[in-house]
Amino acid sequence: MGSLSIVALILAAIIGHVAIFHPYSGKSVPRRALFQSTSLSVFFVVAELVSALAFAMLLWATVTESLHRSNSIHHNMDYKCPTAKTGLFGGAAFLALDASLFWLVCQMLALNARADYLDEDDTKGEYGQVYTSEADGSKV
Q1: 3, 23, 8, 4: which is closest to 96 by C-alpha?
Q2: Which spans are transmembrane here (predicted)?
């Protein structure tokens, strides 16, 4: 389970990077323009740090558990003996969840930065704009 968690965290970080830097619809945005947004810069750095810390803690707990199991002197594996610190693995799992959420926020901020750079308008209309077909309550 620890190895699977590490792989999932690495995939989430890779997908987060691709989602931020990959051009959409053939429209590329320079990195400098993306990171003019202070909030995107801050969330990107926090996502990187939290991902690295979660990776280190997951790796530590997984390696500790693996070493304990391979070097066990007990012949009965059902013996109730303390193994890797459960708090360490739980904290690493919580940080991995936080990292994926930070990557999601970075994706949303990158979409805003792209829209600002490319001067894209909202295709849904202006705020407060009401069509006559909606005003009388009937649907056309």
Answers
A1: 8
A2: 6-26, 38-63, 83-105
CA Rg, the chain, in Å? Answer: 23
0.85 surpassed by pTM: no
Domain ranges of the chain: 2-71+83-120
pLDDT tens per residue, range 54-73? 999 989 888 887 777 777 66
Q: Which two tokens stand for residue 96?
A: 């991995």
How far from chain centre, in Å, is Cα 35?
A: 18
Average pLDDT over all residues of the chain: 80
